[in-house]
Amino acid sequence: MTSFPLSRALRAARAGGVALALFTLILGLCYPLFLVGFGAVVLPHQAAGSPLYDSAGNLRGSALLAQAPQGDAWFYPRPSAGAGQASNASPADPAHRQEVEERRRDVSAREHLAPGEVPPEALTASGSGLDPHVSQEYAEAQVPRVARHTGLSEARLRDLIARSRQRHALPGSPGGALVNVTTLNAALADAVTDGAAQ
């Protein structure tokens, strides 16, 4: 059995240490700084987290994150499993099925829909639990309630929905257009404020 010379071991350790330091510097510092700088120059709004401001210039949050509605005068996003959490519960889980049925009854009563007409995204959280998007169908199902509570016309609310519509990121994705409820509620707040000021 041949022995491994100490000098070779030291050289190998030194080469490994140099490689570790070099790649840590490149991949741990230079590359992230490059991406941050590139994003700030090329996509400044997205790089800042897609901040959402009201008409007075106040920061309302991020257009990428759902916000819990503060009453029936607002459009509802998808449910969250908790404070910004998703759920990994199986559809076969009895507790999950019960939760879905409770949501179905709540949405059916709130929006005056038959239980079978409640859209699926009103019943289950998205993968992240923070997705601000719902289908146009679910957004428009909420129009009569929001109109009653805000005094805005249904036509005006449908116009706000159309302005908050977004296409799927992947062409050909099923389900048609999506509505960003966070930007929709921000536009709704501005519309209500403008209406009150007139």
Notes on the structure:
- GO terms for molecular function: ATP binding; hydrolase activity; P-type potassium transmembrane transporter activity.
- The system is composed of three essential subunits: KdpA, KdpB and KdpC.
- Residues 94-114 have a biased composition (Basic and acidic residues).
- Helix content is 51%, strand content 8%.
- The chain is mostly helical and 198 residues long.
- A three-stranded antiparallel sheet has the order 3-5-4. Strands 1-2 form a two-stranded antiparallel ribbon.
Outline of the structure:
The protein is mainly alpha-helical.
Q: Termini, distance in Å?
A: 93 Å
Which strand-content bin applies to the residues? 5-15%
| Helicity, as a percent range | 40-55%
* Number of distinct beta strands: 5
Mean of residue pLDDT values: 82
Q: Note the run of SSEs as H and E.
A: HHEEHEHHHEEH
Instruction: Report the radius of gyration as a whole number of Å.
Output: 25 Å
- The general outline is elongated
Strand order of the largest sheet: 3-5-4
Write the layout of secondary structure elements.
Blueprint: H1 6-42, H2 44-47, E1 51-53, E2 59-62, H3 94-111, E3 133-135, H4 136-141, H5 143-150, H6 154-163, E4 165-166, E5 178-180, H7 181-197
Antiparallel strand pairs: 1-2, 3-5, 4-5
